[in-house]
Amino acid sequence: MKVTAANVYVVPAGNRRGVILEIETDAGITGIGEAGVGYGWGGEAAAAMIAQIMSTEVIGRDPGPVEAIWGELYDRGFWTKGGGAITTAALSAIDVALWDIKGKALGVPVHSLFGGPFRERLKVYANGWWMGCETGREFAEAGKRIVGTGVGGLKFYPLGLLDKETVIRHPTYRQVSRTVLDLAVERVECLREAVGTDVDILLDLGGGLTIDQLRPLLRRLEPFDVGFIEEPVDPAIPEAMQQLNTAIPIAAGERAYTRYAFNRLLRTGSVDILQPDVGNCGGLSEARRIAAMAECHNVSIAPHNYGSTLATVIAAQFAASIPNFRVLEFFPEFDREPGYVDLIDAPIETAPIEDGMVRVPQGAGLGVSLRPEHVEEHLWRRVGADD
Tell me: the pLDDT tens digits for 331-358? Predict the structure, then answer.
């Protein structure tokens, strides 16, 4: 089998975009992957890097030796060493698409290639349910609604303020007013009262505060049995987490690239839960290495997942292939978002939720396909045959 061509799509998908790679082969088997830059700057930059790597390094070769290709691209890419969002996201998309091809060629799910599944169902928590909420009461009402669908965990951004352009505005200059701090506590308190003690409440601070505001805020939040605090400090300074002194578990890793950055996180001794995003940490190959490192530190894995519905499927294959999985992020109300585009034929977000869990896709490869009628108009570049 040889790689013959590739299509790169940049698809608006609700409040984020899907930077999607589709690899074609001469055997008629295609593989798909996603670059984990679904928000913020850099979507088209990642698309351009994917197209360049595919045209110069991957087209024309056998897609089978996936990890050997990963290692070669990592060594030859120059900017891949040291890792950054754009380079590593491009590498991630290629890696995932190659694993998808291998699974389809062998007729087995991707997780089976790694010796899985460790589990048939995955515990999930909801994100995105909070859209349009501002007050504690509004968060409480929205939380009760989504818990009613069977979800057992809720994540939101207690310091976030509504923003017409970006949906939610995080703190700037690492500080907020006392009013915003009080609002954050009010939101958590009202939500906990509304959903009861059996629902996990998970908070993402986006690295938004300095230690002098962060420590008092965490003390005020501790009585509400918070499941974890995500990115409590700027990811550029993970050592700052050593100063937090909180009983709330700390989660981090959304903006850490390759095993080397995660090694730095683990060496702080302050992270309880690692959050590799398969779309930007280096793909399935690297995510599994990161999970193995976490095991050596007695740390669990809660994959970060803030991309398209394809990203959720990819994260689910990863979660099913590791022993130390904890919980998976997903967006059960994707279709409420303006400009929502259904990229794939069987999104996990539409699957039944049973006891707070969803089933792992069991089809060959990733177990899903792109919906051409929805993505073709968003073709960013084609490379290879007929380009």
Answer: 998 888 888 888 999 999 999 999 999 9
Rounded-to-integer distance, Cα 279 and Cα 281, Å: 6
Rounded Cα distance between 255 and 233, Å, is 11
Strands 379-384 and 3-13: antiparallel
Would you say how long the chain is, in residues? 387
136 secondary structure, DSSP code: H
Strands (E), 176-255: 200-204, 226-230, 250-252
pTM: 0.97
Q: What amino acid occupies position 386?
A: D
Instruction: Compute the distance between CA of residue 16 and CA of residue 154 in angstroms, rounded to an integer.
Output: 19
3-state secondary structure of 219: helix
In whole angstroms, what is the distance from residue 35 CA to residue 91 CA? 8
Rg of the Cα atoms in the chain: 20
Averaged pLDDT for residues 36-50: 95
User: Side chain identity at 342, as an amino acid letter?
Assistant: D
